Amino acid sequence: MAVGDAFLSAFLQVLFDRLASPELLKIAQIWRVDVELKKLKGTLLKIQAVLNDAELKQVRNNAVRIWLEDLKHLAYDVEDIVDEFEIEALRWKLEAEPQFDPTQVWSLIPFSPRVVSFRFAVLSKINKIMEKLEEIARGREDLGLKEETERNTYGISQRPATSSLVNKSRIFGREADKQKLVDLLLSNGTSEGEVCRNGDKVFIIPVAGMGGIGKTTIAQLVYNEERVIQQFELKAWVCVSEEFDLMRVTRSILESATGRSSDLKDLGQLQVSLKKVLRGKRFLIVLDNVWNENYNNWDDLMVPLRAGAQGSKVIVTTRSEAVSLMVGSIPSYNLDGLSYEDCWSLIALHAFAGKSSSAYANLEAIGKEIVKKCGGLPLVAKALGGLLRNKVLDSEWEDILNSEIWNLLDEKNDILSSLRLSYYHLPAHLKPCFAYCSIFPKGYEFDKENLVLLWMAEGFVQQKQKKQIEDIGREYFDELFSRSFFQKSCSNASSFVMHDLINDLARNVSGDISFRLNDASDIKSLCRISEKVRHASYIRSPYDGMTKFEAFYEANSLRTFLPLDVQQRYFACSLPHKVQSNLFPVLKCLRVLSLRWYNMTEFPDSISNLKHLRYLDLSHTNIVRLPESMSTLYSLQSLMLIDCYHLTGLVDNMGNLIHLRHLDTRGSFKLQKMPVGIDNLTSLQTLSSFVVGENGSSRIRDLRDMSNLQGKLCISKLENVADIVDVVEANIKNKEHLHELELAWGYHENNANSQDQGFDENVLDELRPHRNIKELTIKSYDGARFPSWMGDPLLSNLARLELIGCTKCESLPSLGLLPSLRNLVIDGMHGVKRMGHEFYGDGCSLQPFQSLETLMLDNMLELEEWSSGVEESGVREFPCLHELTIWNCPNLGRLSSRFPALTNLEIRYCEKLDSLKRLPSVGNSVDDGELPCLHQLSILGCPKLRELPDCFSSLLRLEIYKCSELSSLPRLPLLCELDLEECDGTMLRSVVDLMSLTSLHISGISNLVCLPEGMFKNLASLEELKIVDCSELMALPREVSLQLLTSLKRLLIWNCPRISSLPDGEEEELPSELETLEIMDCNNIERLQKGLCNLRNLEDLRIVNVPKVESLPEGLHNLTSLESLIIEGCPSLMSLAEMGLPAMLKRLMIRKCGNLKALPAMILHTSSLEHLEISGCLSLKSFPSSGSGLPTNVMLKEFVIKDCVNLESLPEDLYSLIYLDRLIIDRCSCLVSFPGVTNTTITNLRTMSIVQCGNLVALPHSMHKLSSLQHLRITGCPRIVSLPEGGMPMHLKTLTLLDCENLKPQFEWGLHKLMSLCHFTLGGCPGLSSFPEWLLPSTLSSLCIKKLTNLNSLSERLRNLKSLETFVVEECHRLKSLPEEGLPRFLSRLVIRNCPLLKRQCQMEIGRHWHKIAHISYIEIDNRVIQ
């Protein structure tokens, strides 16, 4: 049932307003079509009179619904004609000869050949529309449609009334919500600072959320909670519903509170009675399902309620945030969807009639996939559970799983009715905006600002008085968001999504107006798009073939052409040239055209045919120039050119685009100038960048009349300014809507003013922004001083300031008095030697930098001193600064400012910095401690630093790197993490006092022979110890055992080549709580001590590149917690774990152990083992025998064998690994065969790869029984001559057969029967001279043939591969032609490499086979993209 026509009245009203505009009527009169337009309007008015009745009846009358659909399409056609009038009139104004005055121009219009032609065409269109309109007008009588002044119902089932009763046993996942709401009800609002409106005693709690989320349920749970019942003297439950009838609601409260019916007919009497009942009593009232947004109605309802006692509460459930804001004493309590587990519990409850789902294991697996359809809505979960009830067949559940939920649920279902009600209660102007969102796929994240621009382009947003249309559009969006039609994205805070069911609703209400292609299967099943479609989107793919766009040729009324990317994959895609040259000129009604992320370099001049175009997005393309014909797109509002890195210029006559409001060229850095006439674009709201041209080609004064600029503006190449008067006229200081401003100079070599620093200073002086500016960036400024306005406190909103590359400035501006400055970056100011009073603000006793939170100084090469700017006692600078970064200031000797709130300090490469102690300050006798709030301190590359403050009382993390003069640490009572790298080893003596330390990293201390005695005696809290690159360290502490580190969980020793052993013996054992032990690149360790096996908590053990170790200690099986064991680069290792592996081991990796001859006897019997990799074990010949066979509980999922060149056989019980998912055998040149025939198969195996096994003669027997196998790769196995009997597994998706010289494809393989095969690679079969037809299953989407040196022809069956999208041909030297019938029509990517004969035939335009491949969007030949 389509329900999307309720906005027709609003649509027609806008159309009437445009038809009645004086300017349009004047044009129509001059062009002598005014009579026809008046007649058109009159007919539409007659039809509009019955719209209310039609919209009511269409719900149950299909003929009326079709009548409304026809009317809607005609209304669009009328709007197109009105647009054409306005565009043509504007063209005449802009293109008129300069010597004519306006009156002369208009007097000549009727006699212009172009106008005569235009008039004839428009009259023809009007007459056709009139015929259809008159037919529709007659149809209203046949359908019995009547004129109505008002409608009271939409004909949609009203939501059923609710009551306070609830079955708690059937509710899941709401306990936390219930508790929070109960706490709100039981709290004394006034004592917690919650203020009721207007001093009311009644506290109102709004509960908001989309339809079906469970608002009524949570209210019922709270209402019936025992603690709540005891708290209130009276309770009442009222279902308010859609129509807010004050008398009905008041009576319902009275009757619910008293338990008696009331016969009172007068509202006044009802309110008096209710007031008496409630007077002085603490009550709880639930008003369920409130839609009313009229404040007067609400205020009238509250009159008797205010008689209640203090602590009375009202719960209001609503879908509207506007209702919440209007009634709530606090912000609304917004309900989230149920968790996955709770949704499944609810479905299972209803599907299995209360029985345990475990009894239906086969259905449970399918059901848990069905849960994803719920989107967290309990009402949907309940409905789906009801659909599944009494269904016990897998096929019945799979039907539900594979169906669209909107089609599953019955028209009378509560959830569908609930959602439709939400739509019908939308104001008329929001309905087309919401319906338009049907072009977004499910899960698509959209941007608010961009969606508003799309709505504007479609004419959905109507200007009101002096408000900017963008602001109105944002209000539309916010209202839809407040009504739960949109939700915040979970993955991106700046994006929004629609719930899947809301998306379904949008598609349902938009009817055949909107269309979207979701995936490749949609394209292949699609013949054509209906000519009635106005808005279309599709999922962009890397190689969009021409076939995808063929269906669009019939949609000549299309207004929106929008490629989208659901997965937000940002890479360039290919677009067939014919789409630009042939398709777009056909779509003459386009208002929205996006080609973002397409790998296109130019756009055809035929774009001028798109005269309705209002939104054009060419962002992230390789476009070099814009066609000059774009200057005739007079309706264009938004032109998006973001990150067009190759774009060098805009359209020369861009001044004609007087309706342009948004020109976004962010990231298009090659723009050299702005176009002539840009000063005419006075409607611009967005101008991301303005490039001042050389020799006056584009002058900064062109900004003068752009008073509505908003957001961010970057003015670059300011070195090209020739006249200071131009800067004055630019009027930057009065552009009050700009929030971000960037002023950038470039190189000055060719600038006539380059020698005059004073000129640049004057330019910057006149570029003072408006006081509303929030962010300011100045780059490469060439003056010696900054203007005084930069420190003016009147810039009261400036929150971020960046001064970058201003190398000639010798002093900083006075910034300390900017009241809102929070972030300051000073980078590359090489001329500044001192930061002192002038930086803070001379002669001011106020607190400088009162709001600054982050400060970064970078590349201040000459900075020597940073002194305090405050001399008066009690005045602190930087009271809020919490992050300070100082990089690359090689001459800075000391810091003397106070930073009372600093939490993070980072200093890098300040070579002359010798102390962090604060210099004494004049007039401040009280020492309040240095950096009292500092939590993180990082000092890197400060070789002269000798002293730190005596104490960092709050420091939690300290990193010191390359500070060779620093020999001791201060008092650090709270320090948790310490990193010391390339420092003096004597600093380690200070570690003993760090009693709070949890992590210690020691790295690159070259003179460290042994750790200081007693270093660890107080480090009972230490959890991680990492010792790296200590080339002289000979041993870990022995005198004082590491066992003192009772909390140590991670011990890592890397690249300490002189350490010969780990602690061993009774007094030298490793800490017992150790969970991770890594020994890496320790060349001198000969053995691992037996005490290692006593670490019962050890979970991860890694022994890497320890070449002298010959064996692992006995008792390794005693490591009962060990889950991961990695042994790599131990060439002397000959055996391991002779007594077995730890019982909990999940991952075992043995790599590059060349002398290892045997594996543990029961290696495959470890039931918990999931990942096993054996690689580079050159002496290994076989796997141990398992004796009586493997137990059934072995969980191995991944088995990798690589570079075991002497391995002759695989485990005899390989086929018993029933849980194996992935099997990789790579470069095992002595392997001859797989184990023999067995009764078991690896039923769960999904991936098998056999690579470079030169002696392998056969593949596994009964390979066709590997029912789960999806990916099979056989490469470099020249002795394999055939596949096992039975052919290939039936569910293969990917198959690679490469460099198996003696393997010749056979019909018996049954490749043509593999209906799941998508990707097939075949190569290295020199005997193959032709391509058999049976080799190619019809399901292939990707085919690659390579190294077929004798192949001379391709199968004609290629043409029939309707799913083929990618075809790669490599090293087929004799292949010289393509199939006679050509390649598949859906093919979008063709790659030909090192095929000289074929290359010649496929040359662009001139090759003999070019016509066979010209339709393909992406063609690459010998690594060169030719299309």
Automatic annotation (TrEMBL):
Q: Where is the R13L1/DRL21-like LRR repeat region domain?
A: 700-829
Task: Tell me the ranges covered by the Disease resistance N-terminal domain, including all copies.
Answer: 7-97
What biological-process terms (Gene Ontology) are attached?
A: defense response; response to other organism
Q: Which GO terms describe its molecular function?
A: ADP binding; ATP binding
Source organism per UniProt: Vitis rotundifolia (Muscadine grape)
Signal peptide range in chain numbering: none
Question: Residue ranges of the Disease resistance R13L4/SHOC-2-like LRR domain?
Answer: 963-1174
* Disease resistance protein winged helix domain segment(s): 439-506
Checking InterPro entries in the record gives: Apaf_helical, LRR_dom_sf, LRR_R13L1-DRL21, LRR_R13L4/SHOC2-like, NB-ARC, P-loop_NTPase, Rx_N, WH-like_DNA-bd_sf
Q: Which UniProt keywords apply?
A: ATP-binding, Leucine-rich repeat, Nucleotide-binding, Plant defense, Repeat
Q: Give every NB-ARC domain span.
A: 200-355
Task: Identify this protein by name.
Answer: Disease resistance RPP13-like protein 1
Pfam families in the cross-refs: LRR_14, LRR_R13L1-DRL21, NB-ARC, Rx_N, WHD_DRP
